Amino acid sequence: MAVARELLPEVGPTGLTYALLAERADVTRQTLYRHWPNRAALLFDLILEGPDLGNYPEPGSDVRTVATDWLKSLRAGISEPAIRTAVLAVTAQADHDPDSAQALARIGQDRLAALNTLLEPSGVQISDSEYTLLYGPVLARLLLDRAQPTDEFIDTVVTQWLTTLEARGH
């Protein structure tokens, strides 16, 4: 995983072949295929098992604080070059590669479940649509605008998101 994380930003998703990865990691390709039967599975693990950036939020009863801390954690994760490259690759391949489409769906489900776990002490649980409304602007800023979402941007997103939650009766 560490070798893949190092190579991915350097060679890109198509350049990250199992032959190259096996050579650099000093393992056999069969070992890699046993762990990750396809590239989408490898990218999935790269995304969800990224390096510990030391800023993953704690569960809490204040929805604003949990959502803000979670978005800052998302920003930090996607700003890491290997994770950013893997996310872009899985997203780009999802339309024509069923494994990538499945990996992308599983990432979304995993992150929604993780956020709902963080929100449990508040008594709030969000739907997939409410989840998309929270992370969407931050990913748009990072991946489409190619700009860093500032703390102020994140605060604005959370404020708007909370307004939406209140309107829906949360």
TrEMBL record:
Residues 17-36 bind DNA. Coiled coil: none annotated. Keywords: DNA-binding. Residues 1-54 form the HTH tetR-type domain. Transmembrane segments: none annotated. Gene3D superfamilies: Tetracycline Repressor, domain 2. It comes from the Bacteria. Pfam families: TetR_N (PF00440). PANTHER family: HTH-TYPE TRANSCRIPTIONAL REGULATOR RUTR, TETR-FAMILY TRANSCRIPTIONAL REGULATOR. This is TetR/AcrR family transcriptional regulator. It comes from Streptomyces bugieae.
